[in-house]
From TrEMBL:
Domain of life: Bacteria
CDD domains reported in the protein's UniProt record: SDR_c (cd05233)
Family per record: Belongs to the short-chain dehydrogenases/reductases (SDR) family.
Lineage of the organism: Bacteria, Bacillati, Actinomycetota, Actinomycetes, Streptosporangiales
Molecular function per GO: oxidoreductase activity, acting on the CH-OH group of donors, NAD or NADP as acceptor
Protein name in the entry: Short-chain dehydrogenase
Protein keywords: Oxidoreductase
Pfam families (alphabetical): adh_short_C2
InterPro entries tied to this protein: NAD(P)-bd_dom_sf, SDR_fam
Length: 260
């Protein structure tokens, strides 16, 4: 299927690995010119032919600097993928294990990075009749299933997407949300990621925790979601083929959530 994205431009945040990198691959594979943003520039970004812009999106001015640099590279912007996120503040416990600093850090990366990047990108997206895709989490609908600052920040991000779709839809910009369940990325696979910390707190090996995740989460597919599967959904939502899809929240979690 031709997604009719060839020659168009995109910014993908959190793009050096995982879902972000898979999204860069999907969009460059459709012939888009893509700016890929993360704190580090990985060889994988460059191999895909994307333009890497190193930036800390957890800072107040990082997102605006990114959009300015991206517009200088791309000229115009058709698609913004707010993918950056994650982070558990280093804690795996319940509500009382997170202090203000951790709440601020997690909200900074999962909510304010998207707020600030979108604010900077919107004038350009309005000129082009562009599209925004926000990467939230199915945890937004099951906030007890992960670190509470993370799941509540994602719930706010999902609501943010709906609000933007209402306000800017009449002016030609579509906004959609993608909400994955557990995806096979560094978050679960890395020996010093969230999965490893969670496993240690439960007295399990990381591999044991990850192997049991599909059953624990009720994933009908019996396996973690692949980054490329999320990226394919993002690419479709970015495409003019999805012209009637806006303000929607697309769960991609192997059937874990039974009510959506
Ligand atoms: N994996 C899952 O199970 C899962 C499930 C639901 C939702 N999600 C969401 O999907 C998105 C991507 O997750 P992922 O699993 O692909 O994550 P990941 O593998 O940990 O990758 C995160 C990406 O964000 C970048 N990043 C982190 N902090 C940054 C900062 N301060 N400034 C700029 N870039 C930063 C990282 O690169 P640098 O470290 O080089 O900066 C990396 O490219 C996140 O929003 C996450 O919450 C993931």
């Amino acid at each position: 299927m031709d997604l009719q994205l060839s020659g168009r431009t995109a910014v993908v945040t959190g793009a050096s690995r995982g879902i972000g990198l898979a999204t860069v691959a999907a969009l460059t594979g459709e012939g888009m010119r893509v700016v890929a943003a993360a704190r580090t520039v990985t060889p994988e970004i460059e191999e895909l032919g994307a333009i890497a812009i190193p930036v800390d999106l957890g800072t107040a001015d990082g997102p605006a600097r990114l959009v300015e640099a991206a517009l200088a590279e791309l000229g115009e912007l058709d698609v913004l993928v707010n993918n950056v996120g994650g982070g558990d503040g280093g804690a795996t416990g319940g509500f009382l294990s997170f202090d203000d600093e951790q709440w601020e850090e997690i909200y900074g990366l999962n909510l304010f990075a998207a707020v600030r990047t979108t604010r900077a990108a919107l004038p350009g997206l309005l000129r082009r009749g562009g599209a925004v895709v926000n990467v939230s989490s199915n945890g937004a609908r099951i906030p007890h299933a992960g670190p509470v600052p993370y799941t509540t920040a994602k719930a706010a991000l999902t609501a943010f997407g709906k609000a933007l779709a209402e306000e800017f839809g009449p002016r030609g910009v579509r906004v959609n949300t993608v909400s994955p369940g557990p995806v096979r990325t560094a978050m679960w696979e890395s020996p010093d990621g969230y999965g490893a910390r969670l496993a240690a707190s439960l007295g399990l090996a990381r591999e044991q925790l990850v192997a049991g995740l599909p059953a624990t989460m009720g994933m009908i597919t019996g396996r973690l979601v692949e980054p490329a599967e999320v990226a394919a959904l993002v690419a479709y939502l970015a495409s003019p083929l999805a012209a009637s899809t806006t303000g929607a929240d697309h769960i991609i979690d192997g059937g874990a959530i039974k009510t959506a």
